[in-house]
Amino acid sequence: MSLRKPDPIYALVDCNNFYCSCERVFNPALEKKPMAVLSNNDGCIVARSNEIKALGIPMGAPMFQYKELLEKKRAIILSSNYQLYGDMSQRVMETLRQFTPSMEVYSIDEAFLRLEEFQRLDLIKYCLEIRKTVKQWTGIPVSIGIAPNKTLSKVANHIAKKHTKTGVFDICKRSTQNEILANFPVGNIWGVGRQLSKKLNEMGINTALKLRDVDIVWARKHFTVVGERLVRELRGASCLELEEVIAKKNITSSKSFGKLVTDKKELMNAIANYTTKACHKLRLQNSKAQGLYVYLRTNPFRRQDPQYDNGITYGFMEPSDDTTFIIQAARKCLEQIYSKGYKYHKAGIMLLDLVPASYKQMEMFDTEETQARSKLMKTIDVMNNSMGQDTIRFAAQGIDHPWARKCEHRTPRYTTNWDELVKVR
Q1: Looking at the domain that runs over 182-244, which CATH code has it been given?
Q2: How far apart are CA 228 and CA 232, in angstroms?
Q3: Domain range summary for the chain, segments of one domain joined by +
Q4: What is the value of pTM for the model shown?
């Protein structure tokens, strides 16, 4: 006689105002002060403290539009510090792994945990313990939503963050679901975009409860299998499993420049740096690329300047994760698409058609040099991971980066750079 498998229970753990919280860990004086973090080149607001949200400033708003208001409110404005945020994210995720054997890192500040193995416990208390531990070990506050599936855990997390003092909310009971979904706007449901929300509202379906109670056949007819799956999840079924290891099919690395660039050598330095970062990510997920795409573009908003936008794809004879080889391929691409007389605003690369690193193409010669290059790349990764980014760099990356993005208000990279450690006096 086999035991019945327990029904799944998900917990969505979401870091509160993550970028702002990371900054506050190392500068407690920022607590309860209005604070915004800016995007690349300090252009748009990509993270807001609750105090900034209370001012009615939307996510993604151009900085110049709200500069006067922010100055009036004496808001703290910071440049994005992605090395710090990435490292803090890793610390949060490693902490969460102490509480469950099944976990999916969904984004830099979110993770789904499976908790049905712990249902003999009081799950509210268990999640409060998770929340307390993450705060104690990393300094980052989190909110946790408990539910029978991913979609409802997103709803529960929203309630935990916005409407509870504890930061934890359980929506597993049907009666609780009825109460919450009746007042939950359909546009706030995970997976419902702006266009679908508009379409549903036009049909009179303006709450999650109304969407949950539509006919399944009707949902599939109007919104395909994705819409049907969404309705089933709102009804409590678990249709979306954890994706514990997500290998990307392509890896992109690109940024807008801090100043307009005309010099081909500077462009190559930038592309070499982007390629190096992309190749590091490639090896981290144990993949190899089968091709490369490189592009250049001017700023379309500078209508007084001549415009140019071009890109080219380069296929590899065999899959590679060798940074040196891929930088050489990127150089060949740049030679073909670079054109004089333009002020370039952005460049980028994309590693294409990724395959597992274990993939072996039938070749006549499997040279010792190939194996040696692979060991070299691993050694470089180990050195840079332990000693700091770009401790070992490729000559093509250059040393001075006048093209680098603006980050006039970036705080120190407290956890990833020896020269920027917190100083105690």
Answers
A1: 1.10.150.20
A2: 6
A3: 26-82, 182-244, 251-397
A4: 0.70
